[in-house]
């Protein structure tokens, strides 16, 4: 990834021209507070006004962060031919992936994806008439005996935290704490190791371009290098999410009551960066639509119903094939 070719230079056109400020206003929430009403109120304010927040005292063992970061670095330090032995393909989107600098893809990174529930199930194709369901399994690298065990331990802990956050979000919307549980019984949640190598021309590239996440919840552990930026809803300014020791960054979405906001990752020329997001996706058979309890004449549904599994497969295949069109997005289902 060290070469700078013409397609990489063209990536300058992709970089947002919005102003960036050196100020970290992302809310920081202590999950260990004993006052549930205060906690739920803080969650509601953060979700409504930012769509992002950080949590501390979240219950994930701190030593586990050290172990998972070592596991990620150990994998990415392997020779490229070893990493490619577990490379993803069009059918199975889990495993290793190198970003390519083509017309539409300018991410300066490499990734390794794995499922929390192994196996998991997704539709065989995005075709609405195709009823076939495919079984997907993780690809684990050889000759790394502790790698799989650490990944699975981390997955169990983050799964518990995700359910806790969903309960708090449900309460913050005035709903029963278990309101979202049924949507995630056979969840398709995944964990991603992101590695952003030092970039020779950081002013011409992004680690990840501006985008919105497609899941209900994203939980991100980032190292001390920094690079994650959030576009503030109030004025469109890019705000850096400064790394907070032992904190996790949360990104949410819900019928624009809690709107997933645009975010991106910038790179630098001196230090590599690692981040580990958990994308908490619902079951493949879930029909995603605004909650009935929250829809009325004053707050109508803003999105059409769609099947999550079909949506995810279409998005994954479009990304894999590097199509000359934008990948399917949540906003494609917005009611005009």
What's the gist of this structure?
23% of the residues lie in helices and 21% in strands. The protein has 336 residues and is an alpha+beta fold. The strands form four sheets. The protein has an eight-stranded mixed beta sheet with strand order 1-2-12-9-14-7-4-3, with helices on one face. Strands 8-13-10-11 form a four-stranded antiparallel beta sheet, with no helix packed on it. Strands 5-6 form a two-stranded antiparallel ribbon.
- Name of the CATH first level: Mainly Beta
| Integer average pLDDT | 85
The helix count comes to 6
Unreliable sequence segments: 1-23, 101-105
CATH architecture descriptor name: Sandwich
Count of discrete domains: 1
- Helical fraction equals 10-25%
Structural class: alpha+beta
CATH topology type: Jelly Rolls
- The CA-CA distance between the termini, in Å, is 41 Å
Largest sheet: 8 strands, mixed
CATH superfamily: B-lactam Antibiotic, Isopenicillin N Synthase, Chain
What is the count of β-strands? Answer: 16
Helix and strand sequence? HEHEHHEEEEHEEEEEEEEEEH
Shape: globular
Strand order, largest beta sheet:
1-2-12-9-14-7-4-3
CA-based gyration radius: 19 Å
* Beta-strand content: 15-25%
State the assembly state of the protein chains.
single chain
């Amino acid at each position: 990834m060290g070469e700078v070719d013409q397609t990489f230079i063209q990536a300058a056109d992709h970089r947002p021209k919005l102003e960036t400020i050196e100020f970290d206003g992302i809310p920081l929430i202590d999950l260990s507070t004993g006052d549930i009403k205060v906690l739920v109120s803080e969650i509601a304010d953060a979700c409504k006004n930012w769509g992002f927040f950080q949590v501390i005292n979240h219950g994930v063992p701190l030593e586990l962060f050290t172990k998972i970061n070592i596991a990620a670095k150990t994998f990415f330090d392997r020779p490229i031919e070893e990493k490619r032995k577990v490379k993803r393909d069009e059918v199975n989107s889990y495993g290793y992936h190198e970003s390519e600098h083509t017309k539409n893809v300018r991410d300066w990174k490499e990734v390794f994806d794995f499922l929390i529930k192994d196996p998991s199930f997704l539709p065989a194709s995005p075709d609405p008439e195709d009823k076939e369901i495919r079984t997907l399994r993780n690809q684990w690298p050889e000759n790394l005996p502790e790698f799989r065990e650490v990944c699975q331990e981390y997955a169990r802990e983050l799964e518990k935290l995700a359910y806790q956050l969903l309960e708090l979000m449900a309460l913050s919307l005035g709903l029963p704490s278990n309101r979202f549980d049924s949507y995630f019984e056979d969840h398709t949640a995944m964990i991603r190791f992101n590695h952003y190598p030092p970039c020779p021309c950081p002013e011409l590239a992004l680690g990840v371009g501006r985008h919105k996440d497609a899941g209900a919840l994203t939980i991100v552990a980032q190292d001390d290098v920094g690079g994650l930026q959030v576009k503030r809803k109030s004025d469109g300014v890019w705000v850096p999410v400064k790394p907070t020791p032992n904190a996790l960054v949360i990104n949410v979405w819900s019928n624009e009551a809690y709107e997933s906001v645009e975010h991106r990752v910038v790179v630098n020329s001196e230090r590599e960066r690692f981040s580990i997001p958990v994308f908490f996706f619902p079951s493949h058979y879930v029909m995603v639509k605004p909650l009935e309890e929250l829809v009325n004449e004053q707050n109508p549904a803003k999105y059409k119903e769609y099947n999550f599994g079909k949506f995810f497969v279409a998005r994954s295949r479009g990304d894999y094939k590097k199509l000359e069109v934008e990948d399917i997005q949540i906003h494609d289902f917005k009611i005009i």
